[in-house]
Amino acid sequence: MAGFRSLARQVRDPRCDLALRRYSLRKCLERFAPYGHRATWDHLCSRAGFGPEDRSPDPVRLVAALDELEEARAVWLAYEVEFAERRKKEKHDGLRRPGSVDDWHRLTWGGFGVAWCDDPAVHPREPLAEVLRRLIAALEREPGSACPVCGGEQLAWKYDLDHEPSAGPVCTDCGILVPRPVLTPESLAYARRARPLLMSA
Q: What is the pTM of this model?
């Protein structure tokens, strides 16, 4: 099974068939997809300027999409290294019980679904790397009351998510499943009382 870097080389290789290059970019999302596979694909296509169903996109646009994905992956991998080092130090210092951030992080190891978007067509517009930087910054400070990505304060509890956890606070502005550790207990309670979001068709 090809790894992310091997697939990325195929996307960039002009000697490869265009269909293979597009397929390789899609396969990269099996290794790293911050919004989930379908929403990350929709995001990359819209930012790079080709359609999600376009079978022969401009190779330059394919590479632009890959560049954005690679930058975001570098941001996330650096965070994971720091996270692992922190946990190692905490264990050395006798702190064996992981906190809520650690519980959340276990579900997102490798970067899949760190900013899950259940509706593939609703996701943040900013570059992926910027979204992840904002999310990481929120994980490293005290909990707040707003979406860490867009600052939106309209959070609603959504059930039957195609993700783990299968329910949680979703930002009605940018569509991400907001990690519970970045929200205050009051914000979580408010989101639970808000009208639940229905599954998209």
A: 0.89
